[in-house]
Amino acid sequence: MNNPNTLCSWSGGKDSCFALMRAIEMEYAPAVLLNVLNEEGKISRSHGIPSGILKAQAGAAGLPIHMVSSSWQDYEKNFTGALASLKQEFNVSHAVFGDIDLQPHRDWEEKVCANAGITAVLPLWQQDRKELVMQMLNSGIETMIVSCNMVMGERFLGKMITPSTIQELESVGVDVCGENGEFHTLVLNCPLFSKRIEVDVQQKLQHENYWFTALALRP
């Protein structure tokens, strides 16, 4: 099959963005982005990114975005349902994910895709984490840290990922990709976007053992 229609599990962060860029290089044709919001439908489930910013990213990428609200408890059911629905609506046969090397994540993604009758694609799989981050920066991805653990602390919130930020992460013993959930990012610009997304960090909030930014899209 040439240029199979593909959806992207889109977090708004660097890994899903770079995975989609790689998938396009592999001649997959992006048709739609998929994101899971919290129960209130206001911010993304994992990264805490407001839905309006996710819509702005999708608009800049020239792609529709499908957002589904879910609790963690119903996450798998709702995610699988969204995959099945998008398969019908956009005639997609594949789904792109940005995971790098956590086997349980890959197992889950392959399971939910199989249940929806589509194939999981992981373009970043088993690649060196630091090399990947450097490739992301060199490819033109501009990305900001929007949530992080207590080891990093609030000082990292709002920082752009640069070579010096990568050195800082290494100095505090944090994985430079954040693959284990140490931090999450928001892509402000990349080769997929027709224009840069401008956001303001309005607040820095601690929730349990994690720091989050309250973000607003700049008009």
Automatic annotation (TrEMBL):
Alphabetical UniProt keywords: Ligase
Pfam families: Diphthami_syn_2
Residue span(s) of domain Diphthamide synthase: 8-214
Molecular function terms, GO-annotated: diphthine-ammonia ligase activity
Enzyme class: ligase
NCBIfam families the UniProt entry points to: MJ0570_dom
Domain of life: Bacteria
Name of the protein described by the UniProt record: Diphthine--ammonia ligase
PANTHER family: DIPHTHINE--AMMONIA LIGASE (PTHR12196:SF2), DOMAIN OF UNKNOWN FUNCTION 71 DUF71 -CONTAINING PROTEIN (PTHR12196)
SUPFAM superfamilies according to UniProt: Adenine nucleotide alpha hydrolases-like
InterPro entries, sorted: Diphthami_syn_dom, DPH6/MJ0570, Rossmann-like_a/b/a_fold
EC number: 6.3.1.14
CDD domains per UniProt: AANH_PF0828-like (cd01994)
